[in-house]
Amino acid sequence: MMMMMMMNVNTDGSESEEHGILVHVSASDVADAEHLSMTKTVVIAVSCVVAYLGVMAALTVYCLIHMIRARRLRKHAQLHDSDEREYSTADKVSLLLVVTS
Question: Which of 33, 44, 72, 87 could form a disulfide with 91 if both were Cys (CB 3.0 to 4.6 A apart)?
Fold first, then answer.
């Protein structure tokens, strides 16, 4: 790194000084920066894939649990309906008459 000082002549004839820093960048520095950039890109891509797979796994588990609960409720409702269907209307009336008399 080198310090650089320049003298400028303004339009009105006065002189002004400008100070700056001159930075030399070697080819290896550029290659390192490109490698770091590529590494960041790969890390971001892999992180997105892992997040996507996590969401898919969570949704699969949620849907599976929901499906199992719905199946149990359907079976319970069918069993409950079949218990009521064993007796005909006439049987229910006769049972009601027996119980009330």
Answer: 87
